[in-house]
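Sample pair:
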Amino acid sequence: MQSESVPALTVRWLITRSRIMGAIGGAIVGALVLLGYALHIDWTWRLSPGVPATHPLTAICLVLLGLGFLPTRGRPRRMRVLARLAVLTALTILLLRFARPLIGTTFLTDITPFGHIVAEQPSGSPIKVGTNAARVLTAIAVSEILRWLRWPAASQAAAFGAIGLVIVALVGYIDGVSTFRGGLAPQTVLAASFLVIATLFATPRHGFLRPLVADSEPGRLARILLGCATPLLVLIGWVMSRSMHFHGLSSVEAQTSLSYQTAAVIILTWVLVTVASTRAERIDRRRRRAEASVLAAASTDALTGLLSRDRMEQLRTPRDSDQRPPIAATLFIDLDRFRAVNEAFGHRIGDDMLVEVARRLRTVAGPHAVGRVGGDEFAIYCVGVSPREAEDMAVAVTAALGIPFKIGERRFHLTASVGVAHSETAPEADLRQAADSAMHVAKRRGGNQAMPFVSLMHSERRSQIELEQDLYEALNHQDELSLVYQPIIRLSDRRLVAVEALARWMHPQMGAIPPNRFIQVAETTGLIVPLGLKLMAAAVRQAALWRVRDHEDAPVINLNISPVQFASGDVISDLVRMLWQADLPTSAMCIEVTEGAFTDEDAIRALREARQAGFTVAMDDFGVGYSSLSQLPRLPLASVKLDRSFVLDATASSGGATMLTAIVQLAHGLGLKVVAEGVEKAEQLALVTRAGCDSVQGFIFARPMRPEEFDTWLAEIKHSAKNPVETTS
């Protein structure tokens, strides 16, 4: 918004304070006239013998109108009653003046104070309430009554009529028409000017005078135009009054007519300026209203009526950069498993649930700000609460959202994960980010709980996000993500039968990133699909190199595929295409999947297709997570890889060894090969050998190696007369 100039500010200041100034001015002038009558001071009601005098009744009306115009807002009701009674009394006196032909002059004479002074004038003509004086004061009183009725435009029109009559009197004085002179005494002109200003600007923010006080470009233009037009119109009036002395205008009637015409021109010009300004201001007001609507729409969520994400951010951000942030707390709420309900039952049911969630959050939050910051994410911003109060509110939120939702004829159960961050416990952290970090911790712990923020959460969350972003970059580089290969040795002849391809990430700043860390990040962010394609392509290239060199003796590559890859695309078709382009058979690859993949029917179907295409399929880390021996016969498996925990338990107790042997015998009974993982010591090797395992993978033979290291290791094995165990132990 542009700043206003000093003259414009002055005009606005005068307009907004004109009510009380005009009321006091009019009342003082009327009181001075009455005081002059009481003290026999002639000049107070008549300045000179040739000038009209102010009648006592006129002075009484001036006092009554002045008292009636005094502001009464915020004052006792009896003050408003007295003010209106004063205006109505003045109007009654004026109406009696106009009814004089009907009721006669005796009545007015009887109620006129200082009657002997009015009648005993040196000129022999008594003082009268002039017609124009009665018209001016009647127009002013009517204008005030119309303001009571809340008709601002009509009120201002009546005030302009009074201004016109005042201007007629002024033109008469300028011209020196002694028999006319506007019919108004100078005291009446002065007091009427005060009162007409008081009533004209009593409602300046309404009617057609609105632009004069509007804080807009049309308002500034209206003030400039009226400010410039007023001196010009006064000059025109003076020129026209001078023209009355021209030949042909010597009669009083002609001069009186020209006085009215001059006043009409001045008033018409003012009215035209104000009306034109009003139309411009109305357009500007509509524009500002539209802008406010757009701003309100941007600040409010259309579905729930809660504050928007941007508005919540504005509340948390101090307006002044030097201002100290207030003691406050932020609650970040995420609905658990809402998307599943939304997808299963439709968006209409989901929208109804979100509206009900918003209602419950408003109830819990009370006077605090509540916003919808995401699809199923909400936030509460609390100012002036203690950490304990914020945590209690978070618990109340989880309890409120745990109550079943009645949508239509069905009941739905939802829970919420709530993160709480307080400026006292997280002074250096952004409350929004801190509460978000705490919410994610609550969600990882199963949801349906409130979690206060601690500084470690923010660093973990930040590290997780940074790792995610760095993984995006790593996918575009050739030298960060790679595969290493760990041999799988057959126990019967101690020969190499396969190698497991293991992903590695060499970060340029942090060094080697553990696979369990970045694979989890990839699975939760959807990056597992491009990462899987990149690693599959690297494995196929390496298999092609070994096939060219070793022909049929090239080892089978066990390639790990995440269950998320099955849900995100046709990973088996992608692998078949890569092998076909490299001129490799599908038998060159073994697909390793964890037990979690076999909980999904789509993944099981894809693995059956893989077996039909010629791939072998192995279950990795068998014995943890989703193990169920009854499922093994129906799964498309060629082998199982026992988790390293079986080997550790077997060496620690006889019961563990018995369990290991039983599982191996069961797998053999189902026609499955058994691979023991994590074998690092000679006693562990002897134990898995006695249990009947077919193959072994572990440090006792070799650690995971880069392709060139693997080639060197393999060359040493081939040229050695010793077996691999004796060579590497």
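The chain has 28 helices and 16 strands.
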